[in-house]
Amino acid sequence: MNLLSIGASYRTADVAVLERLVIPESSVPDLLQRLVAQPYVGEAVVVSTCNRVEVYAAVSGFHGGLGDICNVLAEHSGIPATELAGHLYVHYGEAAVRHSFRVSSGLDSMVVGEAQILGQLRDAYHSATEVDSAGRLLHELMQQTLRVGKRAHAETGIDKAGQSVVTAALDVAADHLGGDLTGRPALIIGAGAMGSLSVATLTRNGVGPLRITNRSHDRADRLAEAYGATAIPFDQLDAVLREVDIVVCATASTVPVLTRERLERVGKDLIVLDLAVPRDVAPDAAGLPGLTVIDIDSLANSRRSNPAAAETAAVEQIVAGEVDNFLGWMRGSEIAPTVAALRTRAEDVVSAEMRKLMSRRPEFTEEQRADVSRTLHRVVQQLLHSPTVRVRQLAAEPGGDQYAALLRELFDLDVPLATQADAVPEIGGKA
Protein backbone atom coordinates (compact mmCIF):
# COMPACT_ATOMS: atom_id res chain seq x y z
CA MET A 1 0.00 0.00 0.00
CA ASN A 2 1.09 3.56 -0.64
CA LEU A 3 -0.33 6.96 0.27
CA LEU A 4 -2.45 9.06 -2.09
CA SER A 5 -4.02 12.43 -1.35
CA ILE A 6 -6.55 14.02 -3.68
CA GLY A 7 -8.36 17.27 -3.09
CA ALA A 8 -9.61 20.67 -4.15
CA SER A 9 -9.06 23.89 -2.25
CA TYR A 10 -9.32 27.64 -2.65
CA ARG A 11 -6.13 27.35 -4.73
CA THR A 12 -7.71 25.19 -7.43
CA ALA A 13 -11.47 25.77 -7.23
CA ASP A 14 -13.82 28.68 -6.65
CA VAL A 15 -16.54 28.61 -4.02
CA ALA A 16 -19.15 27.44 -6.53
CA VAL A 17 -17.17 24.22 -7.06
CA LEU A 18 -16.25 23.80 -3.39
CA GLU A 19 -19.85 24.04 -2.25
CA ARG A 20 -20.76 21.16 -4.57
CA LEU A 21 -17.82 19.12 -3.28
CA VAL A 22 -18.28 19.90 0.42
CA ILE A 23 -19.22 16.88 2.52
CA PRO A 24 -21.67 17.52 5.36
CA GLU A 25 -20.62 15.99 8.66
CA SER A 26 -23.58 13.62 8.58
CA SER A 27 -22.51 12.30 5.15
CA VAL A 28 -18.86 11.61 6.01
CA PRO A 29 -19.37 8.03 7.34
CA ASP A 30 -21.22 6.94 4.22
CA LEU A 31 -18.60 8.51 1.93
CA LEU A 32 -15.78 6.81 3.84
CA GLN A 33 -17.48 3.45 3.49
CA ARG A 34 -17.98 4.02 -0.22
CA LEU A 35 -14.30 4.87 -0.60
CA VAL A 36 -12.94 1.78 1.16
CA ALA A 37 -15.37 -0.39 -0.82
CA GLN A 38 -13.48 0.55 -4.02
CA PRO A 39 -11.10 -2.06 -5.49
CA TYR A 40 -7.88 -0.07 -5.08
CA VAL A 41 -8.64 1.81 -1.84
CA GLY A 42 -7.77 0.08 1.42
CA GLU A 43 -8.02 3.01 3.88
CA ALA A 44 -9.49 6.50 3.76
CA VAL A 45 -9.77 9.76 5.71
CA VAL A 46 -11.89 12.69 4.47
CA VAL A 47 -11.24 16.33 5.35
CA SER A 48 -13.98 18.83 4.48
CA THR A 49 -13.69 22.49 5.52
CA CYS A 50 -14.89 25.84 4.21
CA ASN A 51 -11.99 26.08 1.77
CA ARG A 52 -10.81 22.51 1.11
CA VAL A 53 -12.10 18.99 0.51
CA GLU A 54 -9.44 16.28 0.61
CA VAL A 55 -9.22 12.51 0.66
CA TYR A 56 -6.19 10.79 2.18
CA ALA A 57 -6.05 7.14 1.19
CA ALA A 58 -3.91 4.02 1.31
CA VAL A 59 -4.10 2.54 -2.17
CA SER A 60 -2.74 -0.59 -3.84
CA GLY A 61 -1.98 1.24 -7.09
CA PHE A 62 -1.69 4.86 -8.18
CA HIS A 63 -3.89 4.92 -11.28
CA GLY A 64 -6.50 2.56 -9.85
CA GLY A 65 -6.70 4.51 -6.58
CA LEU A 66 -6.89 7.82 -8.42
CA GLY A 67 -9.73 6.59 -10.59
CA ASP A 68 -11.65 5.08 -7.66
CA ILE A 69 -11.47 8.24 -5.54
CA CYS A 70 -12.27 10.60 -8.42
CA ASN A 71 -15.33 8.53 -9.31
CA VAL A 72 -16.63 8.63 -5.73
CA LEU A 73 -16.09 12.41 -5.51
CA ALA A 74 -17.74 12.93 -8.90
CA GLU A 75 -20.75 10.88 -7.86
CA HIS A 76 -21.02 12.74 -4.55
CA SER A 77 -20.71 16.22 -6.06
CA GLY A 78 -22.61 15.68 -9.28
CA ILE A 79 -19.64 17.11 -11.18
CA PRO A 80 -18.57 14.93 -14.13
CA ALA A 81 -15.20 13.29 -13.48
CA THR A 82 -13.65 14.90 -16.56
CA GLU A 83 -14.68 18.36 -15.32
CA LEU A 84 -13.78 17.66 -11.71
CA ALA A 85 -10.24 16.59 -12.66
CA GLY A 86 -9.44 20.18 -13.63
CA HIS A 87 -9.99 21.31 -10.03
CA LEU A 88 -8.11 18.55 -8.23
CA TYR A 89 -4.55 18.31 -6.98
CA VAL A 90 -2.96 14.90 -6.49
CA HIS A 91 -0.03 13.86 -4.30
CA TYR A 92 1.42 10.35 -4.14
CA GLY A 93 3.90 8.65 -1.82
CA GLU A 94 6.40 11.10 -0.35
CA ALA A 95 4.50 14.07 -1.81
CA ALA A 96 1.32 12.97 0.00
CA VAL A 97 3.17 12.85 3.32
CA ARG A 98 4.66 16.31 2.74
CA HIS A 99 1.29 17.75 1.77
CA SER A 100 -0.36 16.34 4.89
CA PHE A 101 2.31 17.86 7.16
CA ARG A 102 2.14 21.24 5.38
CA VAL A 103 -1.63 21.29 5.77
CA SER A 104 -1.49 20.60 9.51
CA SER A 105 1.21 23.26 9.96
CA GLY A 106 -0.96 25.90 8.34
CA LEU A 107 1.36 26.38 5.36
CA ASP A 108 -1.33 25.43 2.85
CA SER A 109 -4.10 27.47 4.48
CA MET A 110 -5.75 30.50 2.94
CA VAL A 111 -4.54 32.45 5.97
CA VAL A 112 -1.09 30.96 6.46
CA GLY A 113 -0.51 29.76 10.01
CA GLU A 114 -4.16 29.53 11.09
CA ALA A 115 -4.59 26.89 13.76
CA GLN A 116 -8.20 25.84 13.04
CA ILE A 117 -7.02 23.23 10.54
CA LEU A 118 -5.60 21.13 13.39
CA GLY A 119 -9.04 20.70 14.92
CA GLN A 120 -10.52 19.95 11.51
CA LEU A 121 -7.91 17.25 10.85
CA ARG A 122 -8.52 15.80 14.30
CA ASP A 123 -12.25 15.59 13.59
CA ALA A 124 -11.59 13.95 10.21
CA TYR A 125 -9.34 11.34 11.83
CA HIS A 126 -11.93 10.70 14.54
CA SER A 127 -14.65 10.15 11.92
CA ALA A 128 -12.46 7.65 10.05
CA THR A 129 -11.67 5.83 13.29
CA GLU A 130 -15.36 5.53 14.15
CA VAL A 131 -16.19 3.76 10.87
CA ASP A 132 -12.90 1.82 10.84
CA SER A 133 -11.77 3.26 7.49
CA ALA A 134 -8.28 4.10 8.75
CA GLY A 135 -5.83 1.22 8.94
CA ARG A 136 -2.23 1.02 10.11
CA LEU A 137 -0.84 3.37 7.44
CA LEU A 138 -3.40 6.17 7.85
CA HIS A 139 -3.45 5.83 11.64
CA GLU A 140 0.28 6.50 11.62
CA LEU A 141 0.01 9.29 9.05
CA MET A 142 -2.78 11.15 10.87
CA GLN A 143 -1.15 10.80 14.29
CA GLN A 144 2.13 12.15 12.94
CA THR A 145 0.31 14.85 10.95
CA LEU A 146 -1.35 16.17 14.11
CA ARG A 147 1.93 15.99 16.03
CA VAL A 148 3.83 17.86 13.30
CA GLY A 149 1.14 20.56 13.20
CA LYS A 150 1.32 21.05 16.97
CA ARG A 151 5.11 21.17 16.82
CA ALA A 152 5.09 23.78 14.05
CA HIS A 153 2.72 26.03 15.98
CA ALA A 154 4.59 25.54 19.27
CA GLU A 155 8.14 26.03 17.98
CA THR A 156 7.67 28.88 15.49
CA GLY A 157 5.82 32.17 15.34
CA ILE A 158 3.73 31.20 12.35
CA ASP A 159 0.47 31.73 14.26
CA LYS A 160 1.58 34.36 16.77
CA ALA A 161 -0.90 36.92 15.42
CA GLY A 162 -3.83 34.56 15.94
CA GLN A 163 -4.80 34.85 12.32
CA SER A 164 -7.77 32.96 10.92
CA VAL A 165 -10.26 33.13 8.09
CA VAL A 166 -12.36 35.35 10.35
CA THR A 167 -9.58 37.87 11.01
CA ALA A 168 -8.79 38.00 7.30
CA ALA A 169 -12.46 38.64 6.51
CA LEU A 170 -12.60 41.38 9.16
CA ASP A 171 -9.56 43.05 7.58
CA VAL A 172 -11.40 43.20 4.26
CA ALA A 173 -14.53 44.49 6.00
CA ALA A 174 -12.49 47.20 7.75
CA ASP A 175 -11.34 48.47 4.36
CA HIS A 176 -14.99 49.00 3.42
CA LEU A 177 -15.80 50.73 6.70
CA GLY A 178 -12.96 53.22 6.90
CA GLY A 179 -10.52 50.99 8.75
CA ASP A 180 -12.16 50.92 12.19
CA LEU A 181 -14.70 48.30 13.28
CA THR A 182 -14.80 49.30 16.95
CA GLY A 183 -18.36 49.71 18.18
CA ARG A 184 -19.92 48.46 14.97
CA PRO A 185 -23.07 46.39 15.77
CA ALA A 186 -22.78 42.88 14.38
CA LEU A 187 -24.77 39.66 14.01
CA ILE A 188 -23.33 36.14 13.90
CA ILE A 189 -25.54 33.54 12.22
CA GLY A 190 -24.52 30.05 13.33
CA ALA A 191 -23.27 28.75 16.67
CA GLY A 192 -20.98 25.95 15.55
CA ALA A 193 -17.18 25.92 15.53
CA MET A 194 -16.82 28.72 12.98
CA GLY A 195 -19.57 30.73 14.67
CA SER A 196 -17.78 30.40 18.01
CA LEU A 197 -14.49 31.48 16.43
CA SER A 198 -16.28 34.45 14.86
CA VAL A 199 -17.76 35.59 18.18
CA ALA A 200 -14.37 35.33 19.90
CA THR A 201 -12.59 37.20 17.09
CA LEU A 202 -15.16 40.00 16.84
CA THR A 203 -15.12 40.45 20.62
CA ARG A 204 -11.33 40.65 20.65
CA ASN A 205 -11.43 43.29 17.90
CA GLY A 206 -13.91 45.51 19.72
CA VAL A 207 -16.81 44.85 17.34
CA GLY A 208 -20.16 45.12 19.06
CA PRO A 209 -22.68 44.97 20.47
CA LEU A 210 -22.86 41.36 19.25
CA ARG A 211 -25.98 39.34 18.61
CA ILE A 212 -26.06 35.63 17.84
CA THR A 213 -28.77 33.60 16.19
CA ASN A 214 -29.01 29.93 15.39
CA ARG A 215 -31.78 27.51 14.47
CA SER A 216 -31.08 25.80 17.79
CA HIS A 217 -31.62 28.67 20.22
CA ASP A 218 -29.99 26.80 23.13
CA ARG A 219 -26.65 26.75 21.35
CA ALA A 220 -26.89 30.43 20.53
CA ASP A 221 -27.81 31.18 24.14
CA ARG A 222 -24.81 29.28 25.52
CA LEU A 223 -22.41 30.97 23.11
CA ALA A 224 -23.85 34.41 23.83
CA GLU A 225 -23.55 33.88 27.58
CA ALA A 226 -19.88 32.92 27.24
CA TYR A 227 -19.01 36.20 25.49
CA GLY A 228 -21.50 38.67 26.92
CA ALA A 229 -23.44 38.81 23.65
CA THR A 230 -27.20 38.60 23.07
CA ALA A 231 -28.94 35.51 21.69
CA ILE A 232 -31.72 36.29 19.20
CA PRO A 233 -34.47 33.83 18.18
CA PHE A 234 -34.00 32.76 14.57
CA ASP A 235 -37.46 34.01 13.62
CA GLN A 236 -36.33 37.56 14.47
CA LEU A 237 -33.54 37.46 11.89
CA ASP A 238 -35.16 39.94 9.50
CA ALA A 239 -35.58 42.59 12.19
CA VAL A 240 -32.02 42.23 13.47
CA LEU A 241 -30.51 42.52 9.98
CA ARG A 242 -31.85 46.09 9.84
CA GLU A 243 -30.07 46.98 13.09
CA VAL A 244 -26.49 45.84 12.40
CA ASP A 245 -23.61 46.92 10.15
CA ILE A 246 -21.80 43.57 9.93
CA VAL A 247 -23.15 40.04 9.56
CA VAL A 248 -21.01 36.90 9.85
CA CYS A 249 -22.60 33.79 8.33
CA ALA A 250 -21.18 30.45 9.40
CA THR A 251 -23.95 27.86 9.27
CA ALA A 252 -24.02 24.29 7.97
CA SER A 253 -27.19 24.94 5.98
CA THR A 254 -27.36 23.34 2.53
CA VAL A 255 -29.53 26.21 1.22
CA PRO A 256 -28.93 29.97 1.46
CA VAL A 257 -29.97 31.51 4.78
CA LEU A 258 -29.79 35.06 3.40
CA THR A 259 -31.92 35.02 0.27
CA ARG A 260 -32.16 37.89 -2.17
CA GLU A 261 -35.69 38.66 -0.95
CA ARG A 262 -34.56 38.78 2.68
CA LEU A 263 -31.62 41.06 1.92
CA GLU A 264 -33.74 43.36 -0.24
CA ARG A 265 -35.85 44.09 2.85
CA VAL A 266 -32.86 45.31 4.89
CA GLY A 267 -32.98 48.80 3.40
CA LYS A 268 -29.49 49.90 4.55
CA ASP A 269 -25.80 49.33 3.89
CA LEU A 270 -24.69 45.93 5.11
CA ILE A 271 -21.44 43.99 5.02
CA VAL A 272 -21.83 40.20 5.09
CA LEU A 273 -18.89 37.91 5.80
CA ASP A 274 -20.05 34.65 4.27
CA LEU A 275 -17.69 32.02 5.69
CA ALA A 276 -19.96 29.07 4.96
CA VAL A 277 -19.60 26.45 2.24
CA PRO A 278 -22.18 25.97 0.79
CA ARG A 279 -22.72 29.73 0.81
CA ASP A 280 -25.21 31.26 3.22
CA VAL A 281 -25.80 34.23 0.92
CA ALA A 282 -27.77 33.44 -2.23
CA PRO A 283 -25.60 34.05 -5.32
CA ASP A 284 -28.40 36.08 -6.96
CA ALA A 285 -28.14 38.64 -4.14
CA ALA A 286 -24.86 39.94 -5.56
CA GLY A 287 -25.17 43.51 -6.75
CA LEU A 288 -27.97 44.57 -4.42
CA PRO A 289 -27.58 48.28 -3.53
CA GLY A 290 -25.69 48.75 -0.27
CA LEU A 291 -24.78 45.05 0.08
CA THR A 292 -21.13 43.96 0.27
CA VAL A 293 -20.48 40.22 0.43
CA ILE A 294 -17.05 38.93 1.45
CA ASP A 295 -16.87 35.19 0.79
CA ILE A 296 -14.20 32.54 0.35
CA ASP A 297 -13.43 33.73 -3.20
CA SER A 298 -12.92 37.29 -1.94
CA LEU A 299 -10.55 36.10 0.77
CA ALA A 300 -8.59 33.91 -1.63
CA ASN A 301 -8.02 36.94 -3.83
CA SER A 302 -7.06 39.22 -0.93
CA ARG A 303 -4.41 36.89 0.58
CA ARG A 304 -4.29 38.84 3.85
CA SER A 305 -2.09 38.46 6.92
CA ASN A 306 0.65 36.14 5.75
CA PRO A 307 3.48 35.59 8.26
CA ALA A 308 7.08 36.60 7.69
CA ALA A 309 9.24 34.53 5.35
CA ALA A 310 11.53 33.52 8.25
CA GLU A 311 8.59 31.98 10.10
CA THR A 312 7.36 29.97 7.14
CA ALA A 313 10.93 28.87 6.38
CA ALA A 314 11.26 27.54 9.93
CA VAL A 315 8.06 25.53 9.53
CA GLU A 316 9.17 24.20 6.13
CA GLN A 317 12.38 22.98 7.80
CA ILE A 318 10.36 21.15 10.47
CA VAL A 319 8.16 19.60 7.81
CA ALA A 320 11.15 18.44 5.74
CA GLY A 321 12.73 16.67 8.71
CA GLU A 322 9.47 15.05 9.76
CA VAL A 323 8.81 13.81 6.21
CA ASP A 324 12.20 12.05 6.23
CA ASN A 325 11.34 10.46 9.59
CA PHE A 326 7.98 9.23 8.35
CA LEU A 327 9.43 7.82 5.14
CA GLY A 328 11.98 5.95 7.25
CA TRP A 329 9.13 4.45 9.27
CA MET A 330 7.34 3.46 6.06
CA ARG A 331 10.42 1.78 4.63
CA GLY A 332 11.01 -0.04 7.90
CA SER A 333 7.44 -1.25 8.09
CA GLU A 334 7.54 -2.50 4.51
CA ILE A 335 10.30 -4.99 5.31
CA ALA A 336 8.41 -6.48 8.28
CA PRO A 337 6.48 -9.03 6.16
CA THR A 338 9.75 -10.19 4.56
CA VAL A 339 11.45 -10.62 7.95
CA ALA A 340 8.40 -12.48 9.25
CA ALA A 341 8.46 -14.74 6.19
CA LEU A 342 12.17 -15.48 6.74
CA ARG A 343 11.57 -16.46 10.37
CA THR A 344 8.61 -18.62 9.34
CA ARG A 345 10.78 -20.34 6.72
CA ALA A 346 13.42 -21.03 9.39
CA GLU A 347 10.82 -22.48 11.77
CA ASP A 348 9.47 -24.68 8.99
CA VAL A 349 12.97 -25.99 8.23
CA VAL A 350 13.60 -26.76 11.91
CA SER A 351 10.26 -28.56 12.23
CA ALA A 352 10.90 -30.62 9.08
CA GLU A 353 14.37 -31.66 10.24
CA MET A 354 13.03 -32.57 13.69
CA ARG A 355 10.43 -34.86 12.13
CA LYS A 356 13.13 -36.58 10.06
CA LEU A 357 15.39 -37.00 13.09
CA MET A 358 12.64 -38.41 15.30
CA SER A 359 11.64 -40.91 12.63
CA ARG A 360 15.23 -42.20 12.54
CA ARG A 361 15.67 -42.17 16.32
CA PRO A 362 12.48 -43.52 17.84
CA GLU A 363 14.34 -44.41 21.07
CA PHE A 364 14.57 -40.70 22.05
CA THR A 365 12.51 -39.86 25.11
CA GLU A 366 10.10 -36.90 25.11
CA GLU A 367 12.59 -34.97 27.24
CA GLN A 368 15.41 -35.66 24.78
CA ARG A 369 13.24 -34.64 21.84
CA ALA A 370 12.33 -31.40 23.60
CA ASP A 371 16.01 -30.66 24.33
CA VAL A 372 17.01 -31.18 20.70
CA SER A 373 14.11 -29.07 19.45
CA ARG A 374 14.94 -26.17 21.80
CA THR A 375 18.59 -26.30 20.81
CA LEU A 376 17.84 -26.20 17.09
CA HIS A 377 15.41 -23.29 17.52
CA ARG A 378 17.93 -21.32 19.61
CA VAL A 379 20.68 -21.83 17.04
CA VAL A 380 18.44 -20.63 14.19
CA GLN A 381 17.14 -17.63 16.14
CA GLN A 382 20.66 -16.57 17.10
CA LEU A 383 21.82 -16.87 13.51
CA LEU A 384 18.88 -14.75 12.28
CA HIS A 385 18.93 -12.12 15.03
CA SER A 386 21.76 -9.85 13.87
CA PRO A 387 20.90 -9.98 10.13
CA THR A 388 17.22 -9.19 10.74
CA VAL A 389 17.97 -6.33 13.13
CA ARG A 390 20.47 -4.88 10.68
CA VAL A 391 18.22 -5.26 7.67
CA ARG A 392 15.47 -3.35 9.49
CA GLN A 393 17.94 -0.53 10.12
CA LEU A 394 19.11 -0.51 6.52
CA ALA A 395 15.53 -0.62 5.22
CA ALA A 396 14.72 2.63 7.04
CA GLU A 397 17.32 4.47 5.00
CA PRO A 398 16.77 5.87 1.48
CA GLY A 399 16.78 3.04 -1.03
CA GLY A 400 16.08 0.57 1.77
CA ASP A 401 13.49 -1.33 -0.24
CA GLN A 402 16.33 -3.09 -2.06
CA TYR A 403 17.20 -5.04 1.10
CA ALA A 404 13.76 -6.58 1.36
CA ALA A 405 13.95 -7.54 -2.30
CA LEU A 406 17.39 -9.06 -1.74
CA LEU A 407 16.16 -11.18 1.19
CA ARG A 408 13.22 -12.44 -0.84
CA GLU A 409 15.54 -13.39 -3.68
CA LEU A 410 18.23 -15.03 -1.54
CA PHE A 411 15.84 -17.17 0.48
CA ASP A 412 13.18 -17.64 -2.23
CA LEU A 413 10.52 -16.16 0.06
CA ASP A 414 6.92 -15.94 -1.06
CA VAL A 415 5.77 -12.64 0.48
CA PRO A 416 2.38 -11.19 -0.52
CA LEU A 417 3.13 -7.63 -1.58
CA ALA A 418 0.63 -4.89 -2.32
CA THR A 419 0.94 -3.42 -5.78
CA GLN A 420 3.23 -0.44 -5.52
CA ALA A 421 3.49 2.62 -7.73
CA ASP A 422 2.34 2.24 -11.24
CA ALA A 423 4.32 4.59 -13.40
CA VAL A 424 3.41 7.85 -11.67
CA PRO A 425 3.06 10.87 -13.95
CA GLU A 426 3.93 14.38 -12.89
CA ILE A 427 0.75 15.35 -11.05
CA GLY A 428 0.08 17.68 -8.16
CA GLY A 429 1.91 20.86 -9.12
CA LYS A 430 -1.26 22.96 -8.87
CA ALA A 431 -1.47 22.56 -5.12
Folded structure, characterized:
- This protein is an alpha/beta fold and 431 residues long.
- It folds into 3 domains: 2-161 and 316-325, Beta Polymerase, domain 2 (2-Layer Sandwich); 165-302, Rossmann fold; 331-410, no CATH class.
- 52% of the residues lie in helices and 12% in strands.
- The chain contains 16 helices and 10 strands.
- The strands form 2 sheets. It has a 6-stranded parallel beta sheet with strand order 7-6-5-8-9-10.
- The longest helix is centred in the C-terminal third of the chain and has 52 residues, at 309-360.
- The chain is elongated and about 105 Å long.
- The two termini are 23 Å apart.
- Residues 418-431 have low confidence and may be disordered.
- GO terms for molecular function: glutamyl-tRNA reductase activity; NADP binding.
- Residues 315-413 form the Tetrapyrrole biosynthesis glutamyl-tRNA reductase dimerisation domain.
- Pfam families: GlutR_dimer, GlutR_N, Shikimate_DH.
- Residues 175-300 form the Quinate/shikimate 5-dehydrogenase/glutamyl-tRNA reductase domain.
- Belongs to the glutamyl-tRNA reductase family.
